[in-house]
Amino acid sequence: MVTSGQWLLANSFAGTQMASSAALPSLSFFSSSIFLSSSHYNPKALLISFKTLSLETLKPFPRAHIQDLRIRSELATLPVLSFDGVQVGETTLNLRSAPPDTSRAVVHRGIVTDLRNKRRGTASTLTRGEVRGGGKKPYPQKKTGRARRGSQRTPLRPGGGVVFGPKPKDWSIKINRKEKRLAISTALSSAAVNIIVVEEFGGRFERPRTKEFIAWMRRLGIDPKEKSMFLLMEVSENVRLSSRNIGTVKILTPRTLNLFDVLNSDKLVFTQAAVDYLNQMYGDYDDDDEMEEEEEEDDGSGGDEEEDELEDSGGS
Length: 316
Prior knowledge:
Elements: H1 4-23, H2 63-68, E1 72-81, E2 87-97, H3 103-118, H4 177-190, E3 195-198, H5 210-219, E4 228-231, H6 237-243, E5 249-252, H7 259-263, E6 267-271, H8 272-282, H9 286-315
């Protein structure tokens, strides 16, 4: 037998259920509180959103986007100047360059590697336990009115140890050879507007004279106050002695070519032989890649023919 109290309680519970079902929509995965905006919703607390679970994000990258991420070749046409500063011809600089999205990262990694590998890492300081002396307590602990002190070599006193001072450390980091070459070629390609190509001038300086070298730089349109880098295959003695007193001039050879001097120079001066070396060393390698692909295809086709012959012999 149902009492009046139980009947009233059942009716009130059913009424609240009907009101809640009429006020709220049907609960599903898409109408969950995770995907509905509310005052207690915290977007930073969500690790997975419905957008990341869509099927479009699971599709592979389009071929056009993959093409943009590939290493490309930058072709630049440069005028060739004579010793008097007159244009006598043209030459091309064809270097490999990183994609625009990753070029800054490649060059940054190359320059950071060069600068870190130059650090010797020999800086060293002594801690309070390594400084000589300080074994005896300077004065008693109490009854002096002074602050307590257990050693004269505490970091708080002159001549004491150093807190968290430098210790010998190996700062060198590794970079792949191809990545380093790509960083140099990318930097050279981006500086093509500041490159000047000249004829061989090693025999034009009969004697070491800085004044004549500065006059030659002015004929080429180079301000002696600007930083300039010269890349020569061979440096004659007169050229070296004529330019060594100019602080803004850097004479390099293929052996000493580095990324820091390329980025730190306002003008880059190359000889024709140096341009040919750069095209050969840092140029495009598409022909080599095609030859390797053809060799792989030939190897693969030869293997298929051998398998066919083995099947024929087995069947007979």
